[in-house]
Amino acid sequence: MENNQRREILIAVIAKLTAKPGHEEELGAALTDGAAKVLAGEPGCLLYRVARSRSEAGVYKLMEVYESQAALDAHPNTPHFAEIRTALAAHLGAAPEVEFLDALN
Amino acid sequence: MENNQRREILIAVIAKLTAKPGHEEELGAALTDGAAKVLAGEPGCLLYRVARSRSEAGVYKLMEVYESQAALDAHPNTPHFAEIRTALAAHLGAAPEVEFLDALN
């Protein structure tokens, strides 16, 4: 491997998930359950934080970092991701908004 | 302390910083320098990631988590924050947008 092998850029994801009215608590619970599965099952996922907005009712943000494009590509194809998607579907009021970023540290 | 003492809620912050045109690289460098100072100088800061948007030119997002309101309140009053603010000022094209959230994990 060359010494100046460019360190693979870490990939960050910020996702916005909006609850169906009346499903705010359930969405939060499904997201934190899902986070535990991701962190346990995906060593390439370096960060997976669930946070509830204080300014937008029923809105949650996910803060994620993956060690490589391969780790990010594998994420939606894991068995637990299918479970998470099913669990979330009942409580989402809008399609998730997902932003991809280059993590710099 | 009561047993059912509610665990202090972790506070998450997602901040959007937009570079002055032509200052994109300098803003990124100033942010990553600042991140190193925060992580070294603020034990109450549990997460401080700098990421560059892949969809919005010149936009950086900060993903931060603090262990308590006290840790968050202390953040802007640290000596290094004043240095960071000065370093950023020359490269910002708009006022930072800051969102506060309750971190759930």
Automatic annotation (TrEMBL), chains A, B:
Name the Gene3D superfamilies on file: 3.30.70.100
One GO term in the molecular function aspect is: monooxygenase activity
What region holds the ABM domain?
11-100
Query: Which Pfam families does the record cross-reference, listed alphabetically?
Result: ABM
Keyword annotations:
Monooxygenase, Oxidoreductase
Q: Which domain of life is it from?
A: Bacteria
Keyword Cytoplasm on this protein? no
Name-wise, this protein is Antibiotic biosynthesis monooxygenase
Give the organism, scientific name: Sphingopyxis witflariensis
